[in-house]
Specification:
One of its GO terms (molecular function) is oxidoreductase activity, acting on the CH-OH group of donors, NAD or NADP as acceptor. Pfam families: NAD_binding_2. The chain is an alpha/beta fold and about 100 residues long. About 40% of the residues lie in helices and about 15% in strands. The two termini are about 20 Å apart.
Length: about 100
Amino acid sequence: MNSQFEGYKMDQLNIGFIGLGNMGGGMCLNIIRAGYKVTVHDINKEAALPALEMGATLGENPKELSQKCDVIFTSLPGPKEVEAVSIGEEGIFDGITEGAIWV
């Protein structure tokens, strides 16, 4: 299997996480604990504080986050929020790089 990540060590990947509520916040913290470099974004800035305190960096918007990350996770409450984050102003589709993975 040929992959754009062939030859990468997992700890070299830049991980993005959008949506840091009840579910996303815990998953993000586990990714940070595993040693990954993580960039986070949430419309509620306070939701990002635990991740930032553990060493994550803040993406000001989904576009900025997606420009920096090889893998992007979203954990959002519903279709309206997914649409806003993906195709809204300064959304993921405005910044995602070729070969990046969006989960």
